[in-house]
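Hello again,

I reread your note about wanting to compare the complex against the isolated chains. To keep things tidy I'm splitting this into two emails, and this first one only covers the full assembly. Below are the input lines as submitted, including protein chains and any nucleic acid or small-molecule components. They are followed by the predicted structure of everything together. The single-chain runs will come separately.
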Amino acid sequence: MSIRVKLLSAFLAFSIIPMVLLGALIFAKARGEFQAIRIAQLETIADLKKDKIEFFFRERTSDVMSATSFRNIRQHLPVLERYAGDKGNPEYVRAWEALDDQMRQVQEAHGYLNIMLANTAGTVLYVSDARLKDRYRDKPLADRRAYEEGRERVYFTDIFRSALKERGFEMMAVAPAKDLKGNFIGEIIFEIDMEPIYALIRDTTGLGRTGEELIAKRDGDAVLYLSPIRSDPDAALKRRISFTEKKGFPAQRAVRGESGSGLAIDYSGVEVLAAWRYIPSLRWGLVTKIVASEAFAPVSHLKTVPVSLGLAIMILGIIAAVLIARSLSEPIKALRRGAERIEKGDLQCRVGSDAKDEIGHLSRAFDCMTVSLEEMTAKLTKKAAELEAANKELEGFSYSVSHDLRAPLRHMAGFAELLQKKEWSRLDETSRRYMTVIVDASKKMGRLIDDLLAFSRIGRSEMRMVSVDFTKLVGETIEELRHDTEGREVAWSVGELPDVKGDAALLSLMLANLISNALKFTRPRPRAEIELGCLRGQDENVFFVRDNGVGFDTRYSDKLFGVFQRLHRQEEFEGTGIGLANVHRIVARHGGKIWAEGTVGEGATFYFTLPGTEEAQEWQN
Amino acid sequence: MAELNRILLVEDDPNDVELTVTGLAEYNLANEVIIANDGEEALDYLFRRGKFAGRSGGNPAVVLLDLKLPKVGGLEVLRSMKSDERLRLVPVVILTSSREERDMVEGYELGTNAYVVKPVDFHQFVDAIKHIGAFWAVVNEPPPGGAE
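Full-complex prediction:
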């Protein structure tokens, strides 16, 4: 992941997400608080309206109540009944006019649609509205329930469509009329116009654009709306919502006698904030409501603030992150380019900047490193050149040894032999021995030179490191030395050996030297025992070659591996003493160690370590 | 014994010349040995120039070539021979004191037919010379167009 992506992710994680969460939290809280305020407002309005409605009907009650004790009614109602069949009688006319005078006053003073008087049986005797006089007079009151209830107390009927007003609604208040003795003498009926009530609920001051009020009553298991509603001006007495429907909840609650407030679904299925009240005296439900989306409109602006703020911060943050990332990654990229150039060998390359930050420090430290690298490389180059010169010299030396020293030796040996051949018969015993010594010594020196050159080659030859099956190599080496063991009893014991990493030719030479050594020094034994094995070490594998030969004194063990170092006399065991020096050099070139343990007369053990292959390491575990 | 073919011995050290010729003589192989004391002389003989201009006879049956020679080195002589159309097929036996691997590798790369290290032991040396002489000068059939 690049620095830019990391910075952007970190920025998103640590700034935008908390901000969005915080914004949502603030919004939710503000909405909650705003809802509480709105509800309180709605409840105040609902309570106010309820009070006004109740006040209106208390007034109507007191109007009717005061009418019950009108002397006029006590005096003249019985007259109207008495002369009901003789309406031309002056008594009837006088009584009618007296009543009519007062009732019209009452009607006009309080805005009643009509006032009627009935006898004890409920037959209408007086009608204040002239248009209705012929229609109602001398007929029984149509609403029998009103008649029955009205005998005892003030009774309000349900709302009904008015016959007097186009598209108007009214209700009746019925109360008993009594004489001075308190006897029931008939009924007083006021027809009340609903317009003031409707005007009251039409007034949605303080409720906003979608604010609405309505009244309803319970009709069986349904809500029956008593007032027009916004979407339906003819709803009064027509619109019905069953209690099983999942809407109009505020009205459903109100008509069932509950008073409360909250978020609810209204008659048209819209979510509203509403307050609902029950008016027991009328068995009405009153609902004051406002559509929720409008109610919360001021708060939803709050939502746009954190969102737009968040967007702005995000854009600024992305720009900042990209800039910071660039200011961070550009110097790092420059460092990387420098490092790549240095890696390709351009040690003059410098990447140091003047920047005061950590990257600036790093770049200067990098330069310091490059400087010391340059110095070190220069030193190493010089050393390598010196070494190469020395090696060349050495090569030249061995080349000239090879050529120039062997030639005179060959001549010495050759001409000595020719002389020996030519003069043999004339030489005495001593001279003959001298000649033999000259020839033998030249030959020996030839061998020494050859051995020395081979030893030098072992140190200089190129190594091809491969995985070597050591067990197989040991087997092949023993097979090659088979002719040395003819006529001897040799007990071989080869354990399981791990594979090693090394130059197969050099390792073969090393094994040949060690094994032929073991064969050589066990020659005096009737039964030679030679064991090859491997010890599991902590960090490396230790191989060993053990024999039961003549052994050696451990005190001289460090001399074993020197060039032309011998611990035995030439007469006992042949050899120039180069073999173990070769072995030592081969082990050393492989990064291993070699050492030996021995006891005179009992045998010797040579230990050596070699770098293992990965498989060999597994074997070790 | 088959008719002997000519042997060109390129050797600067008179002692070695003497020992080699002695070795060849011991087995009656010395009658047609031509000695060149350095690389230039060897090339003069082979290319019939200088003091060998107009010499008689064809190419030698075999060239016994030392490597360390004055003027023109043995490997130079070998390179000149192997890049020459007429001498390309003449067998060459490098006969030298050097056991150096790079000499061996270069010798074979240039196309030598054999590489023999002169043994210090006189008997072995004589043995080696005898075998070389017998094989290349007697047993081996020289390439066509060698003798005139």
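For quick reference: Chain B touches chain A at residues 13, 15-16, 19, 22, 67-68, 96-101, 118-123, 125 (CB under 8 Å).

B.
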